[in-house]
Amino acid sequence: MRVLLVEDDDRLAGALSTALTRHGHRVVRAGLGAEGLRLAGSVDFVLLDLGLPDMDGLDLLRRTRRVSSVPIIVVTARAEERDVLRGLRSGADDYIVKPFRTAELMARMEAVLRRGTRPIAAHDHVVTAGDVCIDLSARRVTVAGEPVALTRREFDVLVLLARRPGVVRGREEILDEVWGDPLLSASRSLDVHVAGIRSKTGRPWLVETLRGTGYRLGSA
């Protein structure tokens, strides 16, 4: 697998490149955000540091997400919850804080790849909720006729709920089907993506929370 490592620390980049190569990956290194942005479209996976000398890594992440669904894991020293939430909201598939064990990084990369091989089945029909139309096969959402750009994972969560409107989906069920890991129930990832769906559609009722139970597709 061709992995883009966007990291300006030469020592860390060297150690990670060696570890990734040992695991059979081909590593492309970028020390600047502009270079990372240019290369992101030609690789299979991106490991992204946020503290880059020429731009904030979150800006690079958002700009990459506008044109590519390449798997991205943020690898950074920023450990505060607000930084983790901003990274996930900007489109990261996972977020790991330095220092970390190489084995953990490899496991997280494998988990992200497994999620990509378990796409949620979408039947050829459109589900409507109020003025929201969810085209399951075309992977398209419109609100009052206007298209809404959701991230891949936000759409997967919405599809899971829309496949059986009115049915409550438990947190662990959603995490297992969309993330491929029910143990992520202790994380804020699902909450972040649900908040993203509500915010981007402008319809807070679209995903209904049932405290202690899970979520279901809401109705206006």
UniProtKB/TrEMBL annotation:
Residues recorded with modification 4-aspartylphosphate: 49
Gene3D superfamilies: 3.40.50.2300, 6.10.250.690, Winged helix-like DNA-binding domain superfamily/Winged helix DNA-binding domain
All copies of domain Response regulatory, residue ranges: 2-113
PROSITE patterns: OMPR_PHOB, RESPONSE_REGULATORY
Ranges where the OmpR/PhoB-type domain occurs: 124-219
Pfam families given in the database record: Response_reg, Trans_reg_C
Gene Ontology biological process terms from the UniProt entry: regulation of DNA-templated transcription
DNA-binding region(s) in UniProt: 124-219
InterPro entries the UniProt entry points to: CheY-like_superfamily, OmpR/PhoB-type_DNA-bd, Sig_transdc_resp-reg_receiver, WalR-like, WH-like_DNA-bd_sf
SUPFAM superfamilies: CheY-like (SSF52172)
Signal sequence extent: none
Gene Ontology CC terms: cytosol; protein-DNA complex
UniProt entry keywords in alphabetical sequence: DNA-binding, Phosphoprotein, Transcription, Transcription regulation
Any one GO molecular-function label of the UniProt entry: transcription cis-regulatory region binding
Family matches, as PANTHER family: REGULATOR OF RPOS (PTHR48111), SENSORY TRANSDUCTION PROTEIN REGX3 (PTHR48111:SF72)
Name of the protein described by the UniProt record: Sensory transduction protein RegX3
Organism encoding this protein: Sinosporangium album
